[in-house]
Design goal:
The chain is mostly helical and about 70 residues long. About 90% of the residues lie in helices and about 0% in strands.
Amino acid sequence: MKTIKALLLAFLVSVVPQVTQAQNTAMADELRSSGKIYVVVAVMTTIFLGIAIYLVVLDRRLRRLEKESKNKKA
């Protein structure tokens, strides 16, 4: 759970300044006016969530393997 919170915090800290800067660009205005900005945000969110879920699953597997390794040594 700590991993998810840390990833979410890192995502917000890195994305929020970029989003505020993007509001002043012509490309962002065009995407917003045509409604395509929502597609961009959805794709970015999907990619981020996929990576976050992959990391959580990988972390759980590693913890389990570490426990099994410690049990075999003991």
